Amino acid sequence: MPSKNWFFWRRSILAKLILINLLIIAIVIWLAGVSVKDFACLLSKQYQVADGASSNLFDRTMQFYLIRASILAVIVAGILYYFLVRKLILPLQHLGTSAQKMARGEFQPCREIPSEDEIGRLISDFNHLSSKLQQTEELRKKMVSDIAHELRTPLTNITGYLEALSTGVIQGEPELYRSLHEEALHLTGLVEELHQLNIWESKRLGQGELQKISVENVLETTLKSFELELNNREIKVAANIQAADILGNREGIKQVITNLLKNVLQYDRGGWVKIEGKKEGHIYKVVVTNLGQPIPDDKADQVFERFYRLDSSRNRKTGGAGLGLAIIKEIIDQHRGEVGLISRQDEHSFWFTVPLADA
Q1: CA dihedral defined by 332, 334, 335, 341, rounded to 10 degrees?
Q2: 75: in domain
Q3: Domain check: are 102 and 223 in the same one?
Q4: What does the alpha-carbon distance between residue 228 and residue 291 come to, in Å, rounded to a whole number?
Q5: What does residue 323 show for φ and ψ, rounded to 5 degrees?
Q6: Containing structural domain, residue 72
Q7: Can you give the residue ranges of the Histidine kinase domain (predicted)?
Q8: Are 245 and 212 a contacting pair, CB within 8 Å?
């Protein structure tokens, strides 16, 4: 039989369920009918009081009523089954429509059903997936826009100055070369931060990749590497670090502390920084506190977003690319920890937690 004749079978789960159910009903009715007919014939022969013609009439009448009852039973069962199963299949049809819209970039949730069965959980999981994909798509668009904005200004400046130098409109001076060098350093820093963010997003540290490390050793080593810069900026350091073993990635924790200290160097306004590390139950908490640019309470959570900066003008003299804290959040998320910010006017405490090795 050509495959096109089975189109409804391949495309409709409702047709499959109805046909299977009708087939089962027909077999059951047939077996029951044959059994009843044979039993009736047996009784008719054992207690026969009529002649042979009456016996044949009895057989035909019995067969007629069995066939009629079977057909009626199949029709009634088919109608009831259709409406009951259709109600069951309808959410799946809506789910398929929503999936097609998602493929076209329309992230519309499927209509929820008041049920906690397999179909209800499937629709709930689909809606959660749709919401996450929508958030990811919005972040992707925002990130592309922010990268284009960050690259446009320095590239425009460099291109303009180089064109002016090549045509003789302006003459090369040390100040001009320093400006071009700053623009080049900004581009290099942006590309490096994007590279770091991409590396950590692609790593996806598994439980087996987290090792037992001495957190105070990582903190003190990283702090030591910033000693010269902190002294040159006349920033006093107060460290209170409790010894403990954590479950983590050494390079990742070092990157987190490095980004926090770079943040201190970039935004410091008080000439001091305090670093605390202590155990809290089954986690180890690190807090870096200093004075900096005021952060509104409603913006505290947004500072960990990619390319977010308090300076709406995006002036590179008062802010970086806005990826340092985003890298911190990505690393700590992969350590099954948390990050946060506590602001008291211009005093800010950036904190993060990681699990203890013996937790």
Answers
A1: 20
A2: yes
A3: no
A4: 20
A5: -115, -15
A6: 3-106
A7: 146-358
A8: yes
